[in-house]
Amino acid sequence: MDFRFSEQEEKLRAEVKEFCQKEPPESFPCEIEDEGYGFGGWSRAFTRRLGEKGWLSIAWPKEYGGMGGSTMERFVAAEELAYHRAPQYGHLFGDAVATGILRYGTEEQKQEFLPKMAKAEILFSTGLSEPGAGSDLLNTATRAMKDEDYYVINGQKIWPTGAHLAEWCLLLARTDPDAPKSRGLSTFLVDVRSPGVTVNPIIDMAGAKSFTEIFLEDARVHKKYLLGQENRGLPLVFEALEGDRFWGRCLRHAGSKKDLEELVEYVNEAKYDGHRLKDNQKIRDTLAELAVELEVSRMLNYHAAWLLNKGASISWESSVVKVFADELGQRIANVGLQILGPEIQLKEESRWANLRKRFMFLYIFNRGISLAGGTSEIQRTTIALRGLGLPRG
């Protein structure tokens, strides 16, 4: 791969950096706080501002409200925003949905959704997992029955991120219960404000309200909102998950770099029991190891982005990105709490109180982050089968 960024990519990075300096991301209100994924919090106001700049649709065709740029330009802009902890959560899932619409959608769907998504006039979530179908989507039980020009959908989805804040959802449902499990699933674009659709936030153990559950009771969805062919929805979903795993983790190194920088600043200034933390060899070695691992994560992300930019598949590379980023994030949160120590936890007046609060939240939230988008065990199986060519056990 070519490690050099193009002149256009560097120009865009400089524009994003200048934008973050002139319009600080922290000045925009957030509906969901930064949970450590690397793409900041959920802010409709900031997302709309990005839409005004044209940065929500950098790689989309111009005829659908995009800029006609490359995937690498899109990645460079997102990476710079992530370093500044800009809230990109609001449009993250819209990226995956837009990819599906561009590849599988009708012209009517492209014209109806993409220009509005590019301006953040509508936001998307994804409704895939169910109580009995998490990592194994073949067990999807949500049912969509054809009724003339409509599908009547009944079922439950769990863990859709931000569905209580978005207007639409990409939903997986079973349209043919008699077909083989992999052949009877379809995908729909569902307005979550429709009659028969109920969205409830789920409060996690960190106190965050990002996850939700969706209940569908005789929800009627017009056939024009069937995305792709009936009973052929699984390939579309797998492609969306491939993108979700990459885009949901590829920015983690940029946000974690900022975490590490702030932790180093604390170590350089703090003392404990009269000793300077920066003189502690174990702390120095631990921080150096994290710096190495962050560089590895960055290279894994660049490689996957380079493949996407060429139009190649990242069916197992996205799993590599996800596993490494998730587990590195857990290690950083753990190290941060250990270094900050018990003394800083008791001193509310400390100038480092906000840093302590962030690492405490990250430590708690990161316990479950490796489950989202597919468990690490499932990802390692994907890497073994598709990446290494190993046989199924």
What's the gist of this structure?
The protein has 393 residues and is an alpha+beta fold. Helices cover 48% and strands 15% of the residues. The mean pLDDT is 90.
Structural write-up:
The structure is a single chain. The protein is an alpha+beta fold and 393 residues long. The chain has 3 domains: 7-122, Acyl-CoA dehydrogenase/oxidase, N-terminal domain (Butyryl-Coa Dehydrogenase, subunit A, domain 1); 125-231, Butyryl-CoA Dehydrogenase, subunit A, domain 2; 249-387, Butyryl-CoA Dehydrogenase, subunit A, domain 3 (Up-down Bundle), CATH 1.20.140.10. It has 11 helices and 10 strands. A 4-stranded mixed β-sheet has the order 1-4-5-8, covered by helices on one side.
Total strands: the figure is 10
Average pLDDT score: 90
Evaluate the radius of gyration: 22 Å
| Structural class label | alpha+beta
Give the oligomer, counting copies of the same chain as homo and different chains as hetero: single chain
What is the succession of H and E elements?
HHHHHEEEEEEEEHHEEHHHH
Relative strand content: 15-25%
Labels describing this entry:
393 residues, alpha+beta, Butyryl-CoA Dehydrogenase, subunit A, domain 2, Butyryl-Coa Dehydrogenase, subunit A, domain 1, four-stranded antiparallel sheet, 3 domains, Butyryl-CoA Dehydrogenase, subunit A, domain 3, 10 strands, 48% helix
Write the layout of secondary structure elements.
Layout: H1 7-22, H2 44-53, H3 71-83, H4 89-104, H5 107-118, E1 124-127, E2 143-147, E3 150-161, E4 168-174, E5 185-191, E6 197-202, E7 211-222, E8 226-227, H6 234-247, H7 252-269, E9 271-272, E10 275-276, H8 281-309, H9 317-346, H10 353-369, H11 376-387
Parallel strand pairs: 1-4
Antiparallel strand pairs: 2-3, 3-7, 4-5, 5-8, 6-7, 9-10
Helix pairs in contact: 1-3, 3-7, 4-5, 4-6, 6-9, 7-8, 7-9, 8-9, 9-10, 9-11
